[in-house]
Amino acid sequence: MSPGKKETAAAERTASPTHSEAQHEGGRLAWVVGLGCVMRLGILVLFPDIVAHYLSDRVELSTPVTSYKRLREGVYLSAHQIPPFEGGGIFHQSPLLLLMFSALHRFPEIFTTLAYVAADGFVAVTLARIAALRRTARNTSGGLSIPGEIVFSCTPSVVAMLYLFNPLTLGTVLVKSTIVFSHVAVAAALYAAAAGRSSTAAVWTAIATHLSVYPAMLLAPIALVSTAADGGFGHLDRRAGLAKRIATTVAVFAASFGAMHMLFVACYGTQYFTATFDFVLRVADLQPNVGLFWYFFTEIFDEFRMFFFVVFQLTALAFAVPVSWRFRSEPLFAATMLVGIISALKSYPSWGDLSLFLGLLPLFEELFKYMQYMFLSANLLLYGIGLAPVFWHLWIEQGSGNANFFYAATLVYVFGQITLLFDLGSAMLRRELDIHHPETRTRPVIQD
Amino acid sequence: MDNQELRHHYHLFPRQIGEIALQNNVEELHLSFTQGNWRQGSWGYPPVSSQGVGAEVFAWISGATQEESLDKWKGLTNALSGVFCASLNFIGDDNTSMPQLAFNTSTRGKRSSSSSSSVPGRHGVLRHGFLPRENVCTENLTPWVKQLPCQAKSGLGVLLNPHRLYNMDFHSMGISLAPAVSAADDGQTGLVYKQHVTVVLNPRTFGLDRNWTLGELMDRDVDAACPVATSSTVRVVMPESETRVLPTPMRKETLGGQDTYVYDIQKQNASEIRFEFADSTNKKEAQQRLPLVEAHRHVNGHGGGISGGIETLIINRSNQPVDVTYSDTLPWYLRVYLHTLAIEAVNPDGDIFKQHPTQMIFTPAIDRGRPSTIELAVTLPANTRTTLRYDFDKGFIKYTEHPPDANRGFNIGPAIISYRPDTDSPGIDQPLFCALQSSHPNAYFECKVRVYTELFLASLPTPDFSMPYNVITFTCTVLALFFGRIFNLLTRDFAVLKGSD
User: Fold this and answer.
1) In sequence order, which ranges of A141-166 are alpha helices (DSSP H)?
2) Does A426 contact chain B (CB < 8 Å)?
3) DSSP letter string over A37-64?
4) Which of A94, B132, B435, B449 could pair with B255 as two cysteines, CB 3.0-4.6 Å apart?
5) Which of A81, A298, A393, A436 to mutate to test the interface with B (most CBs of B within 10 A)?
């Protein structure tokens, strides 16, 4: 594979953006985010019936751990002194959300809508700022670019636009799925890591772990980022004391996680832990979603249930450290890979998880020329996303199809994500090779 | 009830029931088997208050700890299942509820006038189990009849002809065991055992028209009363229209505002009681005879097919507000959203009033552990139709948890609406079964009418039962592809292909 053949001869862009360009960029970003937020507000305020009728019951968008209807039920139960986590029947979301929405529900409905729109806007702005940081770092440091390469750096406003106007993101915020708040925490953690503040990132990761269990994996790349004052963007700091820095980050994570745990135990008792963490790991509710777990655990025999829980969850969680170590030269990329792995293999995924992964992809647009399977993964994802609602309708509402149709669509969807992940990873490896040995750019290589 | 205090009258009291009750610490027990729909709008109050289709058991069981009383409950249901040849052993954790409002749960005052005697307090815990899919047939009747002292050999038990009893519009039979104070006012406490059977027959089914005897209706001849019975009577409640009942009764009584004829079977022959209905059959029921409250329940489907709503219509016919308690038990796989509860009352003019329950007790479900129970105390305004609705989501259950005929779905038991008719008000009569009870003292009896709604079928979406192995292999293949590719990524290095320059 030789990307050199794909390039056209042109001058390379060298200088970092000038001050007026940066202002321009800021203005564009404000426009994009403003437009996105206004659009969301508009649809939620003007067309609530259409949203409620077509979108709110979609299992592809809301899962038992992110459903807004269940959140309202939890708030109602706790307001009426019925323990919301008892029995683990209906409410499985974090007490953090319970506290937040118990407060929010004292105000009119519009405030809840504004909270969701603001969360989405925050994620978009944070992604844009990460993109700006990365662009600055790439143009100043030598570790990220290859001499003679055309760099079409993805401008921050384009990153924000691609996230905000992605129909998956839009659908997720319209049904008020609470995965949005998990994205807020994950995005904030990644920004803090990109800026070199690994302790802040660890605290945000602890919050994200409480909101949806899997971001705990992101601790691995975050522990590896540089805290160097020279602004080395998310690079592995090869100074001495790496082990000490990793230990510090892990300790901060554990401390903030433990502090929040103590707070929740004080409010709601230890039942919340069974209802949230244990529930997610055990896949107790077999409601269909766009993941692999539900149908598998519907059909598996009881004797093997425990074994396969362990296998599935290990497959998802065990790659945190290996992936981070392999891509330690750019921990932000490792974090993106992990976000993708979470999106594909978590126990209750939704299209919202994919939207965060797709939102992080444009940050690495220099990898796109190395990727070989873009057409395949794009098609797989489109088929999976497009056919899932159709097959759901055939199975549940019309009764002429059966569960296998929907299951097949989810298989295709997950396989598309896996292909995209693999493609991205091998593109990064190829690029690393090119960075370290620029002479191989035009020569075919193999993996051994 | 203490063992030592209980006097054993096992020559009349069925020994099986007595021993089951003693062994399982039963303070009060009610069991009934019902089949058919009780037409609340035409047939009035049912004679004994249980019209939920299926098998219903509820009992107050005392025990030192929660686990002990739960064990005794399971022992009780299993023992009753054996005695009555019914599948009561299926009453387990996932269909037992502990209602607090629907049944008489508080310790009632003494029935006797003497202030020195006292009724022992009821300390036990009420457990209620319902099997909506249970069928009733001769197999259940035979052991029921066996508990009678004279069985089907003499006395009124002879009339229980299964060919006639099960060719019916409605049938309910059961037993009840309740603590009582002896009528002799000496303060002796004991357990009163009653067996009841309620059946609605249409004489035209058997080729009879307007002129028939009880013996012709049941196709049995009662020769003599049961020799060990202290008294054996037939009470005929006279209908509104012109009807002649022959022969002349031993005495006439008025109970609950209705005329009744009482026949003494020890002196007269029961099968010779003749009914002659007038030509003009007046179908209009007196408004007083209809129950004050009528209830119907159905399921709404809305949304994407996995969500639904339960809507109960409660009609208050009286001119006064009535306080009712609504009690509904749903299995764990129907996930109830209590925040969607809405109660609206509509009066004949069309005005709509939003109601709020005066009391709400909600026990959330535990997956595969316990059903969810909703109990509400609502005041129905006078002369209104009240709609009570809330949403639920259908859960997805494991492959092995679906019943053999998976697409039929699950029968969901009835909701119970209970109330006390305000008999002090003019124009409201006591229901007959309350009036009858006051002549046989039960320590905790108070006239509480229970209205049972209809059942419904919850049809859960099914997975494909034919391919568990295929599912396992497909999913594991995708997972293996992921693992293999990422593993390759992590462990392999690039090398330049030699000789390609």
Assistant:
1) 156-164
2) yes
3) HHHHHHHHHH-HHHHHHHTTT-TTT--T
4) B435
5) A298
Asked if B463's CB is within 8 angstroms of A69's CB, the reply is no
Please spell the DSSP secondary structure of A313-346, one letter per residue: HHHHHTTHHHHHHHTTT-HHHHHHHHHHHHHHHS
Q: What's the CA angle centered on B404, arms B398 and B407, to 5 degrees?
A: 80
Bridge pairing between strands B26-36 and B54-61: antiparallel
CA B421/CA B447 separation, integer angstroms: 7
Q: Token digits for A356?
A: 């965060």
Q: Do B339 and A411 touch (CB under 8 A)?
A: no
Predicted confidence (pLDDT) per residue in B227-254, tens digit: 888 888 888 888 777 788 888 888 888 8
Omega of the bond leading into B426 within 30 degrees of 0 (cis) = no
* String of DSSP letters for B24-74: TTEEEEEEEEEEE---HHHH-S-SSS---SEEEEEEEE--SSHHHHHHHHH
Cα-based distances in Å from B373 to A107, A445, B102, B109, B293:
30, 67, 11, 28, 22
Cβ contacts of residue B414 below 8 Å, gap of 6+? B52, B53, B130, B132, B297, B452, B453, B454, B455
Q: Which residue has the tokens 């099960």?
A: B166
**Going by C-beta distance under 8 Å and a sequence separation of 6 or more, which residues neighbour residue B427?**
B288, B319
Structure tokens that stand for A27 in this block: 């203005």
Each residue's pLDDT tens digit, A80-96: 988 888 866 789 999 99
Whole-number average pLDDT of chain A: 86
Instruction: Tell the residue number behind the tokens 């992110």, with chain if given.
Output: A66
Q: Let me know how long chain A is.
A: 448
b/e map of B79-89 (b: 16 or more CB within 10 Å)?
A: bbbebbebebe
- The DSSP symbol for B284 reads P
Q: Residue A204: which residues within 8 A CB-CB, separation 6 or more?
A: A185, A186, A188, A189, A192
Number of H helices, E strands in chain A: 20, 1
Distance between CA atoms of residues B157 and A402, nearest Å: 54
Question: Band of the pLDDT at B114, cuts 50, 70, 90?
Answer: very low
Chosen from A90, A293, A342 to mutate, greatest number of chain B CBs within 10 A: A90
Nearest to B338 by CA among A99, A75, A96: A75
Q: For residue A372, what is the DSSP state?
A: S
Answer yes or no: do B482 and A345 touch at CB < 8 A: yes
Q: Is the CB of B304 less than 8 angstroms away from the CB of A397?
A: yes
